[in-house]
Amino acid sequence: MDRLDYLKRDAFFTGVNEANIGSSRIIDMLDMVDDQLVVDKKGIYSIENYLVSRRLMYWQVYLHKTSVAAEHVMINALLRAKQLARQGTDLFASPALRFFLYHDIDRKVFLNDPACLKHYLTLDDNDIWSAMKVWCEHPDPILSLLSRDFINRNIFKIEMSDQPVSEERKQEKLQELSQHFGISLDEANYLIACIEVGKDMYSLDDDQIEIRFNDGTTHNLTEASDMLSPSLASKKVRKHYFCYQRV
Hints:
By secondary structure, the chain is of the alpha+beta class. The protein has 13 helices and 7 strands.
């Protein structure tokens, strides 16, 4: 239900008309068999359209190079802020953001300390946006640079490839950034990001959409669909992005 909601809403607001799905039709075709949610065979084309639409939205919107580059400017700014917080630097932050900056929270701590969930639920984009607006004037050159980049939409430049960036190319860019901004190589690491992103059309492990036939039997979508064969469903689509600070 969550996917049907956000795909239809995001397709409308981003203008990706190809990703508009027939959510009402899919809901009408849902049924239960042996305590398992299934889709009537008459709804199989709507399900196929839903999967294609989801793939389009991921590659055209959610994993678009601009979105990925902007996201990693923000991530690197927060990583730098976390490092400064560990060193005892006083940073402007809302109570919720300050909690996570000045405490080392791993999965075990999060699950066992009720304060973690409390602060997490009050944390939203306003906390991040407000903090980064103030960090634009912070004396730390890395934090202020990344914050200005994010606020002023001067996002990382990005290179896309089917293969990971070479270590030589990465070191070359680190040297360039280090010399240009007068910072150490360790500090220059905050100005780059190497990312592998991917999205499968249909995961045989996670999706498990069952189709009910007229005789009452159910079959996995890959068996029932003329379009989505097991080989196509299991095909892994991966892209490698190399993001770095503009100079």
